Amino acid sequence: MVKKELLDRAMRQFISEQVMTLSQLEPLLSCSQRSAQRYLSKWGALRSYNHNGKYFSLPTIARFDSFGVWKYQDIGFSRFGNLKDTVVQLVNNSPTGLTTTELGQILGVNAHSFMSQFRVDQRLKREKWEGRLVYFCAEYDILIAQKRERFAGQPVSPFPSDAQAVIILVSLLKNLKATTEELVKIMNKKHRGISITMVERLLEHHGLLKKTVSHIL
Fold first, then answer.
1. What is the pLDDT of residues 158-210, one digit of tens each?
2. Do 83 and 37 meet the contact criterion of CB atoms below 8 Å apart?
3. Contact present, 92 and 79 (Cβ < 8 Å)
4. pLDDT at 215
5. Does residue 211 form part of some domain?
6. I need a labelling partner for 127 at 20 to 30 A (CA). Which of 15, 57, 161, 204 fits?
7. 160: burial class by Cβ within 10 Å (0-12, 13-18, 19+)?
8. Are residues 145 and 84 in the same domain?
9. What is the pLDDT of residue 206?
10. How much is the average pLDDT of 125-144?
11. Range(s) of the domain holding residue 95
């Protein structure tokens, strides 16, 4: 067990430095890396979402902004945890969803370097808008509200024709586990002009969208 005077010394150094690494903390506590990690966990320490999680800080030190993010120099911390969980919470909390650029501005990082991993993350949905990807909450009611705000005043995508509706429904039955993007890609190999929004409008019209939101949107 680490002596109280060593713990006090480590805490004073934390307050002075604001952020620390394990390699800085170990000699202060005169303990192994595993023991230092246990103390960080006991203190409820925050771990940076960038720099490969190398840096730590304390909840009493962090000064989070309205997004729940605190940046010390170029080191970022979040009240939501790691980078993936933080992105999900930021998107879910946004009234309009967030683009990759907007996420990068909030987090202070190059979001293009890691957003590709959300292609298969079921917690978020994404859609291309004016050449940019917009990420939305996967929960149906929030998703619809976010899209309504984001696309307010934008031209409404046309409702699919009868022929297109048949193509969409047949493709859906053949590819029940496909996402909307995957479904549109499959259809557009033979039938051009069918968009993601057209698919969503058709499914919503028939009351199928909410039931299939985990796969379709």
1. 677 888 888 988 988 888 888 778 888 888 888 778 888 788 778 777 777 65
2. no
3. no
4. 44
5. yes
6. 161
7. buried
8. yes
9. 72
10. 87
11. 80-150
